[in-house]
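For the sake of clarity, the format in which proteins appear in this thesis is described at this point. The record quoted next illustrates the convention:

___
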Amino acid sequence: MARLVVVSNRVPLPSERGPRAGGLAVALADALRPGTLWFGWSGRRAETPDEAPAISRADGLTYATVDMTEAEYHGYYVGFSNGALWPLLHFRLGLMSYRREDYQGYCAVNRRFAAALASILKPDDLIWVHDYHLIPLALELRRLSVQNRIGFFLHIPFVPHEVLDVLPCARELLTGLAAYDVVGFHTEAYRRAFLESVRQMLGIELDPDGAFTHDGHTVRAIVDPVGIDADAFTKDAVRAARGAEARRLRESLSGRALAIGVDRLDYSKGLPNRLIAFGRLLANYPEHRRGVSFLQIAPRSREDNSNYQQLRRELDRIAGDTNGRYSEFDWVPLRYITRALSRRTLAGFHRIARVGVVTPLRDGMNLVAKEFIAAQNATDPGVLVLSRFAGAADEMSEALIVNPFDPDEIAEAMHQALSMELDERRARHHALLEKVRQGTARQFCEVFMQHLVAPRVRKAKVLEDA
């Protein structure tokens, strides 16, 4: 069997433990079989660039990492990846900050990553590259005469060509994506936006099935939504709900209902609107006062970015105003935590919750929505309130779908969820759980790998028949 080479901006090394680790590792668990190589940034910054990747091994996997210089980190990661690409691809043009030197730094790091990776590749390796930090990587590998099959998956949204064209280097990035053999997206809307951008901005004709030919090879764009291992998460939730943290949370509620939101502290997650919506719930539906508590867990991220610093100050203000207005001496309506909790602890908290509030302004998929459903007690389940701009909304139509830009609509959905009869809650949960169980993390990996190996399989079949 060919070796799988996973490439991501950040490699979650086995020595790293804690609640922040494991996002991509969870999604790729079924692809990370013994013999897999995982390549990317170590997370460390050094004075001089690495000449060769550092190699470590654990549990049958090989990890190859490189350090970044301070200048590379600020140009490639802070400047272009998260200052320009992240806001652009989340439709936040007003927050986009483009500097040509940042883009040059982004390209230079991709070039250095490609050189380091090429030095340890085998001729039959299958290469699976993840996310917006590494769009030019395949093109840089091709320039080094790497002929391996290379796939790319975008874990965040893709924008229509009219929005993409705002970025001065948009055509260069599209050309970089066209160097891959397979390009994957969570939803048909993202795939369609990519293909239309290729047609409009690169002038490339598309095949009827959406594939296209560029520089002598076929590029196939696919829809492959990421999922979770629902049954395993349910078991974790059942165990965690009996644990000390969940017991403390349950006791602190004193019989009140719990609404919960779990997000990284990011402006794409719609957190200000969500906290405002909870205040509107208490204002417009006073019957819920003293009857529900909202727990928002939002671990801090990208704290060297001024947009995130401003967001944190805004959330602090909204939380303070809400609690100042509605708190009683024995009840604080809004609990707001900016540190990370383990995935297992969160599973237990989800199981306790009566309402899960997942209202990003824009999101590639959002696995929290699926985790909330998997964690619920099927005999007395909670209700999911979900943004229609999360990729998960394409699949999870039985949730209460809302426009996250309208706090009053979110408040109305929270009221509906808190007031919903048991039979309706069970019916909605049953339908959603079936979908979450079908769209697993394993299926995500298998579908992508089938497309990545397909031409090789066809070639082997031809040789066998001959």
Q: What stands out?
A: The CA atoms of residues 278 and 411 lie 6 Å apart. DSSP finds 16 helices and 15 strands in the chain.
